[in-house]
């Protein structure tokens, strides 16, 4: 899927694989800035898996399903309940609220840049966006609707039946085609063109001198880019950064790996200023709190990530890093709500 708008200007076509692992970036010398900037350049196309290729009709159907409250048991919730486009595709509360007004244990991760994410959920329990889409619909504390019942409910709506038969002529409406449509829409949700991107594209005035210094710190002394690498600012790996001792996170699926205990997937930093509060549990309200947590080194634990060490950053340096992170937020996207079938 190609784009011609400003967000993707001056970018050469690139081949992107969801399985690419980005190497940590640690160079800090001035002569390396150009190479560092290039490694954070926005891609020119969205990668879609061959098992679920993009079509405009499939994405439109997926968008309707993303905002469809009939995919919840009480028909009062949809995917956007926890992934609200007005708040960076998250919600501005400590943790999301599920069925029966139940406060969930974790913050709702953003769906921004889904096409470049793997695996899914904070603990990585879903290998694909299609698999991830099934979880919240069926979860009793979330949308609370068994998937077969969801299919049966949609199947009673003639327009949906016609839509699925058109998009999936060989299969029609099934659990798999339903989540394929949702995943296709989610892969079209891409973070907006930010001042940082304009700087990468050659506009030296796009970000402040403080943000430029912050980029040098981010990729060097502050050690941020060891985990927050690549254009989406994540290594898609799991790290215990010392935010909890209660939730074992990835440890549930890697019981024999000490470093997986209390570890959670590195989130993207794109559009961060729209997505407070922060961390897997929404425990930090501001970027300043996040910065202080890293400066302190995250405490002491056998499972603490080896990358976590106290940082000797002055107050000015901390502000520079925060200013850089703020430069990763573009204009708020306007999302037109779909007209749902009757």
Give an overview of the whole structure.
With 342 residues, the protein is mainly alpha-helical. The chain folds into 2 domains: 16-45 and 192-326, Cytochrome Bc1 Complex, Chain D, domain 2, CATH 1.10.760.10; 56-187, Cytochrome c-like domain (Cytochrome Bc1 Complex, Chain D, domain 2, Orthogonal Bundle), CATH 1.10.760. Helix content is 30%, strand content 1%. It is built from 11 helices and 2 strands. The chain has helices spanning 33-39, 56-66, 79-82, 129-138, 147-155, 158-167, 175-187, 195-200, 209-218, 287-296, 315-326; strands at 238-239, 264-265. Helix 4 (129-138) packs across helix 7. The two termini are 30 Å apart. The model is unreliable at 1-28 (pLDDT under 50). GO terms for molecular function: peroxidase activity. Its main location: periplasm. Residues 57-158, 209-329 form the Cytochrome c domain. Residues 1-29 form the signal peptide. Keywords: Heme, Iron, Metal-binding, Oxidoreductase, Periplasm, Peroxidase, Signal.
Rg to the nearest angstrom?
A: 20 Å
Largest sheet: 2 strands, antiparallel
Side by side, the strands of the main sheet go: 1-2
Q: What CATH architecture of the largest domain do you see?
A: Orthogonal Bundle
CATH level-3 fold name of the largest domain: Cytochrome Bc1 Complex, Chain D, domain 2
For the record, what is the CATH homologous superfamily label of the largest domain?
Cytochrome c-like domain
Proportion of helical residues: 25-40%
Beta content comes to: under 5%
> In terms of structural class, how would the helical and strand content be classed?
mainly alpha
Specify the number of helices. 11
InterPro entries: Cyt_c-like_dom (IPR009056), Cyt_c-like_dom_sf (IPR036909), Cytochrome_c_Peroxidase/MauG (IPR051395), Di-haem_cyt_c_peroxidsae (IPR004852), MauG/Cytc_peroxidase (IPR026259)
Domain Cytochrome c: 57-158, 209-329
Pfam families: CCP_MauG, Cytochrom_C
Keywords: Heme, Iron, Metal-binding, Oxidoreductase, Periplasm, Peroxidase, Signal
């Amino acid at each position: 899927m190609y784009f011609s708008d400003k967000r993707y200007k001056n970018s050469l076509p690139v081949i992107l694989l969801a399985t690419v692992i980005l190497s940590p970036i640690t160079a800090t010398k001035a002569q390396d800035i150009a190479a560092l900037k290039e490694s954070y350049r926005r891609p020119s196309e969205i990668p879609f898996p061959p098992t679920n290729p993009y079509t405009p009709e499939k994405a439109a159907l997926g968008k309707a399903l993303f905002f469809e409250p009939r995919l919840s048991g009480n028909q009062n919730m949809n995917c956007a309940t926890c992934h609200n486009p007005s708040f960076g595709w998250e919600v501005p509360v400590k943790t999301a609220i599920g069925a029966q007004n139940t406060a969930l244990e974790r913050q709702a991760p953003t769906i921004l840049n889904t096409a470049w994410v793997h695996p899914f959920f904070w603990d990585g329990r879903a290998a694909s966006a299609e698999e991830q889409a099934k979880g919240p619909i069926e979860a009793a504390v979330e949308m609370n609707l068994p998937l077969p019942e969801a299919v049966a409910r949609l199947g009673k709506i003639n327009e949906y039946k016609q839509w699925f038969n058109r998009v999936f002529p060989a299969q029609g409406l099934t659990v798999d085609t339903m989540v394929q449509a949702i995943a296709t829409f989610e892969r079209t949700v891409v973070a907006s063109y930010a001042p940082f991107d304009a700087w990468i594209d050659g506009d030296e005035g796009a970000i402040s001198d403080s943000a430029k210094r912050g980029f040098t710190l981010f990729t060097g002394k502050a050690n941020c880019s060891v985990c927050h690498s690549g254009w989406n600012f994540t290594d898609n790996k799991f790290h215990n950064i010392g935010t909890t001792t209660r939730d074992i996170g990835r440890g549930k699926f890697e019981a024999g790996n000490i470093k997986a205990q209390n570890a959670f997937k590195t989130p993207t930093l794109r559009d961060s200023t729209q997505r407070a509060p922060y961390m897997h549990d929404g425990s930090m309200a501001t970027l300043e709190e996040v910065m202080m947590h890293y400066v302190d080194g995250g405490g002491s634990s056998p499972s603490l990530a080896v990358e976590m060490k106290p940082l000797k950053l002055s107050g000015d340096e901390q502000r520079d890093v925060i200013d850089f992170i703020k430069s990763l937020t573009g204009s708020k996207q306007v999302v037109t709500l779909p007209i749902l079938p009757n």
